Amino acid sequence: MHLSRRILVTGALSLCALPLVAACGGGTTSLAGSDSGSGSGSGSGSGKGGSIVIGTANYSENEILGNLYAEVLKQAGLKVTVKANLGSREIIIPALQHGDIDLLPEYQGSLLLYFDQNATQSSSDEVQTALAAKLPSGLKILPPTTAEDADVFAVTKQTAEKYGLSSLSDLAAHNGQLVFGGPAEDKTRQVGLAGLKSVYGVDFKGFKALDADGPLTKGALKNGDIDVANLFSTDADIATNNWVVLSDPKHLIPAQHIIPLIRADKADDQVSAALAKLNSALTTADLTKLDSQVDTDHQDPETVAHTWAKAHGLAG
């Protein structure tokens, strides 16, 4: 059984020092014993026939992306290990910096706000440039894919019609009337209540801390327990349920194209060229379908990634 997309481990786990993550909480968060795929876990330079250790966060889309990275790297002749479901950025980015893993699938805007909570860049090019300037020494980002999975704020069709909602700008006319739901982190995040207040002047009647684009949030939206939900743009349930995604005319939500975050000493020409093969091949529509195959059809992320990569000539 795979975890819902973008369910993040926070709280006590985020305070744990590596490599002692396993002692700090339940679940698969240790860097040991969480491998999938094949190959060596060596942290030495990649080189021809070398090795790369890929880490993923603890939600299915990121695990799919990690396995797509593994497919193109294996085709390029590298030995690859995938350490899946390691936790939130508070866990996996320190793991990357410490050399426990070499590579992560990341999202432009979220990663920039992780390193600079005051960042205001929104376009893909602006975010990529700002992010490159904010990265700690020893880390590097590679060019983004066409595929993007961005935060969205959605309401049911009935709520949209009742309150006349089509844009985030429309929410302020109903301050104190609507309930917002999403992950607990939304209470303080810029792409959450803080930004909706500062950018759009929105005050909600209440906030319900649920999960990140998971069954709790989507169930609460369906049942009317919340009025506005933080979801993700590649979620096929949005179209299935005819939910209305509110437009973002003031560009609160930054670009979220998928990017490789890698240790600089691993980002040689062989690795960079292999990962670049995904840049135009993987589209948002593809990623949406892959997510649905795992989250709705309950297929294995590694199998889904291999099938897609092989169909696109990116795996043997």
TrEMBL record:
Keywords, comma-separated and alphabetical: Signal
Superkingdom of the source species: Bacteria
Ranges for domain ABC-type glycine betaine transport system substrate-binding: 51-310
InterPro entries the UniProt entry points to: ABC_Gly_betaine_transp_sub-bd
Tagged with keyword Signal: yes
Record keyword Signal present: yes
Cleaved signal peptide residues: 1-22
Entry protein name: ABC transporter substrate-binding protein
Native source organism of the sequence: Kitasatospora misakiensis
Lineage: Bacteria, Bacillati, Actinomycetota, Actinomycetes, Kitasatosporales
